[in-house]
Amino acid sequence: MSRILRRLQFNLKMALVAIWCTLVSIVFYLLSFPYYQRTWLSWAYAKSLNAGVRVALGVSVKVVGRENMLAGPAVITMNHQSNFDPLLQGPVFPQNAVIIGKKELLKIPFWGRLFRATNNIMVDRDKPRKNGAGVDDAISRLKNSDCYVWIFPEGTRSHNQPMAPFKRGAFIMAIEAQVPIIPMVSKPLKHVLDIPNKIAKGGHHEIKILPAISTTGMTRDHLPELIAHCERLYADTIAGYLDTPISGAAN
Fold it and tell me: Which residues are paired to 149 by β-bridges?
């Protein structure tokens, strides 16, 4: 396929993704009024976004390790590559999950209300708490409900680069609440969606749910060891992805 045709294909797919995401967001914005902060709203939103985006991009998602998914409460960690991550993670996004997001999102018209209405945790970086912004709220939720807290431990997008060092927040939450960590690893997206080169090849994508990591009995003294262990798990799994092609049916 020539460069011009690849570029046209990319732009068409991006336009379809934008249209679908806009339509789904409008529907859930309207639903946020009668169903404000219902636990199923965020789950349904993630599933709906994923359904259309997978078709528009021509991407099928295979989930490996579903048997490792525990009932909540738990902290779910996921590597973060680009803004497209959430659009392909619907197959592993559980019910009763909340996301930690910056309070600045609330200032964005339309999206701000939608983010709050889906019962997520707001982070106010100008007013950090003892455990770090947003961490205390997450710990309280984990201790008092069966929710999952979904977090990208790198703290920012890696943009197809090697992983950034993990930040402490996710691991403080898990230790303080004494709940397990469920590591999920998303295969590097470049093989199906190469954004820098504007190539949307489509194909098979994979998300792997690794065995849960217990934090029972851990204290803050275990933080460095716990973080290093998780970083090694992610680095080894991603390295394996770079060497091994995906095969098998999609979910």
Answer: 75, 98
